[in-house]
Design brief:
The protein is of the alpha/beta class. It contains 11 helices and 9 strands.
Length: 310
Amino acid sequence: MTSPASTLSVSPVAPAVTPDNDGYFDRIRERVHPDAILPYKTVAGRTLTLHRFDPATSGSPNKADAMPVKRPAILFIHGGGWTNNGPGVVYPWLEYFSKLGLVAFGLEYRLSRPRSPDERARGENEFAAILDCVRDARSAMRHLRLHAGDYGIDPHKIIAAGGSAGAHLAACTTLFTTNLALYDEPGESVEESPAANALILHYPVIDTSPAGYGCERIGPRWRELSPLHAVRPGLPPTLLFHGTGDTTTPVVGAEQFAAAMRAAGNRCEYHPAPGAGHGYLRQQRGYFEDAQTIQTAFIDSLCWLGERGL
C-alpha cells in the first residue's frame, strides 16, 4: 500500500451555529433507511450484518445493479465504548457518503460487557471481548473485498471510518499487521487484506494506554489494542477529527497520533475543534455540516470519484 507525501494539516473547526442544532442528527437518523441488510459473518451461532446505503441512480429500483462503474466504498463503524449502539446510530453518515457517490456500509459487531469494579478487582477485563470487536471489523473489510463484484465496489478504494470506539476499530483494520493470529478470526480465510485504503476517524479511541481511554477495561495487554502504538510508515491517507475539550478520549492522543503519522511519512489531516467535547460532530448541525465539507474535500483529494455523480 502506498500513500501520498507526508502532510499534517491542522485546521481548527468551529461550528456554523444555526437555531436547528439540537436533534438535527437524530432527525436524519429517523427518516433514512438502508437499501439492504446483508450478512457478512456468523460466529458463535450469531449472524452479523452490514447495513448498506447505495449511491442514487436514476430510474432503477435496484441502485446497486444500476451502477455503471465500480464505486469506492466506506465501512463506517458506530461508537458506544464497545458496549452499546448499532449501525442505525450512523445512518446520517451513511446517507451522506452514499450521496457523495460511495457505497456506504454500517457495521454490526459483537459488543463487550462492562466489568464491575469487583470483577476488575478479581482480575477480569474486557480484552477478549474488545478483541472480538476488532476481529469483526477486520472480517467485514475482508468480506467487502471478497464480494466487491457483488456490491459493485472497487476493492482498492475502501475507506474504514468510525466514531469513538468505532474509530478505534476502523484504525485496527489497518494498523495491526503483525501477530495476525491474534487479530484475525480463527479459521477465517485471510486471502484478502482487511487494511483500508484510507481512514476517517472521528474523536477516536486511539491510545489505550493509562494516559488514554480503555486501559483499565482492557487490562495489562492494552498495547496490543492501541493504534497510537502501532503507527508505521506506509499507512493510508487519514482524516482525523477531535474536540480539544474531549474528556472521554483525551485530545492529546489524537495530537500524538497525527504527529506520529507525520513522522512516519504518512499523510494525516488533523482537524481539532476548539472546546468541543466527545461526540461533537453529531451534537450540532454546524459541526455535522462542516465535517461533511471537510470529508468531501478529503475524498476528492483521493481522486477516486472522477466526475462525482457517475
